[in-house]
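From the shared-data thread, chain only:
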Amino acid sequence: SGNPDEAFYRNLWQTISSGRVWRGELTNRRKDGSLYTEEQTIAPVAGKSGRITHYIAIKQDVTERRQAEQSFKLFRSLIEQSNDAIEVVDPKTGRFLDANEKACTDLGYTREEFLSLKVPDIDPGVDQSAFPRAVEELRKSGVATTESLHRRKDGSTFPVEINLKYVQLDRDYVVTVVRNITERKQTEDALRASEERYRALFESNPNPMWVYDSETLSFLAVNDAAVRHYGYSQDEFLAITIKDIRPSEDIPA
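Structure, as tokens:
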């Protein structure tokens, strides 16, 4: 108890005075005023008459353990609130050792189901036979970023960006932060399609067209109609400026 009250001590005394063992925690204060958490076991010892003659207390300072537990709870809370899927992988077997709720929901598994899987079960691009070599490369580099596809429980897939880190603590782990990039890919595809349409219109236009740098007036691109009309090749066009073909015009900068 962080700040034991009268009821706490009453329960402690009633327990040991009745001949039973008491186990619990107390927060004590050192001479310098600092506090520490102490785990205690107090056992009554009876004499020949059966009456309790004294008590034996076994104490252990568990301050660091409690701090570690609090840090772990905070860490776990932050992981569960992450917008990205976070997974912990056994580098030897490829089996998932831990995962946050986001990882499970993204793939449609319960946490129990997820922890029975291996990396190739959710990433069709990972070959189990090549997994050890990939892990060894990650161990040497420490970190890596890649893109892949992840497969849901229902068989559907979605594109992901994966940030991997090789972690060495009490044992070795691979920690992955996985982001669903479906929207980004859709935007990139739409932009690529738009650029392809523009390029097709630019190239097929029967009238001369070009793109030039407003500061240097150098050509950046010209279409086939411009090549035919002015008699320069594509490479020659990119070596001259717009004033070379329109010397008498006032070209706006």
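The mean pLDDT is 87.
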